[in-house]
Structure formats: C-alpha cells, structure tokens
Amino acid sequence: MKLNSILNENFIFCEVQGSTREEIYGSMLEKALVNIDSSLTVEQLLAGIIEREDMIGVPYEGMALPHLRHHELNDLFVLVGVLKEPVKLKPNDFAPTRLIVMSLISNETSDIYLKSIAAFARFFSKADNLKKCENIKSPAELFELLEDLNVKENITAEDIMCKDFQAVKADDYLSKALDIMEKSGKSILPVLDAENKLVGKVDATEVLKGFVPEYLLMMDNLKFVSSFEMFDKFFKEEDVRFVKDFMTPQGEIIFLETPLIQFTVTLAKRDSDMIFVVDAENKLRGLVTINDIIHKILRG
Fold this sequence. Notes:
By secondary structure, this protein is of the alpha/beta class. It is built from 12 helices and 11 strands. It has 2 domains: about 5-150, Mannitol-specific EII, Chain A (3-Layer(aba) Sandwich); about 170-300, CBS-domain (Roll), CATH 3.10.580. The strands form 3 sheets. Strands 1, 2, 3, 4 and 5 form a 5-stranded mixed β-sheet that branches. Strands 6-7-8 form a 3-stranded mixed β-sheet.
C-alpha cells in the first residue's frame, strides 16, 4: 500500500507559520476540522495532543510527530504541516522542526497509524529527504515526493528499535562497562568485535554474581550477613579484569525485518529483558526492550 493512499490533500498544509507549537498545531487543527465530522473542538484536541506530547517527552529533530487517540474520532486523520521557517517546538528538541506529521486516531485505526508513522519516520530520518521539504509549496509537491513510499505490511524491529546505544569490546576493562551502564542507565550492554559484530553481552547482575563469595550464594538466610568483602574485591579488580571475564552469550537475536508480534511474545514471556537486532552480517543495528513496546506501541 502506498503511503499517499492514506493522505488527503485537505489535510496537507504548506508554509505553515507560527512561533510556538500551540500556534502551529492550533492552526493546523482549525483548518482540518472543517473537513472532519466530529464534535471535538480545536481546544480539546490541542490540549490532548500537548498533554500526551509532554508526557512522552520524546525530543524532535527536524520532524515532529504529535498525535492523539480519541474515542469520538471515527477514522485516522493524518495532518501534514510544512513550516515556512523551522521552529523549535519543545525545550528538549534536538533541532528545530521543519515538518509536522500530526495523527488523530480512532480506536479502530491504531494498526494503520503505526504503519504509516513508521513509513514517515524511515523516509524522513534521511537528512536529504527532510531537506527537500524546504521547497514544498503545495500538496501536489508533497505527493510527488512521497509517490514511491510504501507502507509495510508489518511493524518490524527496524521500526521500533532503539538505534542510540553504547557497546563495549571484550578486551575493555570492566570499569569501562560499569561507567557506561551508570551513564546510560542500562544494566545490559552488547559486546562487539572489531567489526561491530555481536559476540555477546555483559549483564550487571552477572558481574555482581562474579564477586559474591560462593558461600553466600548457598545461604538461604542472609539476615545476619554484613560483610563488605565482595565490594572490596570489586574495587580492587574492576581496573584489571576484562569484559570478556564476565561476558555471557548474546541470547535472543532478531533481524531488522522481524515482525512486532514475534519479539513482543519473547519479551512478554521474559525469555529476555533485551533483544539485540542485527543485520545479515550479524552487525548490531539496534536494541529492543519492553520499554520500547510501551513507548512506541502501547503509548506511541
């Protein structure tokens, strides 16, 4: 299915002006509601969109994806706004926004919404494609730009994986891995070789186990244990022990084209807390956790 097939020229607005998201979103909604059969007002929709946007807190970088699900909507409405001048919509945005893809979603259209947004994201994640928006002056020009863009049949790992991740090498010192964990908030890190191919993982839980005296692991009642022995050992060895000393098998891996349902079931069964996404050469391309499912699917 072509992405253009779900777009309507009545919901494509070019040279949109405004200095705040309230002004810009409000202007788009006011024009769109003329062609939407709904009792919802601009104020209601705008308040809901901004509330959800603030709750999720995702920073934008050139393209904004505001959205709202509402039981009073009877279809999926995709509003596209090409700004006359880029505007930084939120304090945490990485860059000013040039393109806005706003989705108003009914309870029955979440599937096509997710697939269409994935298509937009893939296309406009390329800087060259986003830059082309500068020259769009009419709906027809946007349709022409998107004419070859397809909506995939399935949501896949590529669509929701986290692409911003840090990794370590097997020969890195343990202290480096722990420093990265502390800064990134991740307790599991992928381990890559010199060619960035996935060779395993390092898990903070397994690291801690490596320093716990064996007799403590055998005890059922630790109520009277107060020794600092294991931590003394850790501080003495973190700069001389290597990641490879604590590395475990990579566990579940999936590919860019793996459908959403397959890795969701794996996460739901708790077979793995983090799933690595690799390409055909086993090079790491991203990570998927249960938080990605919540953030991009359940509350996306």
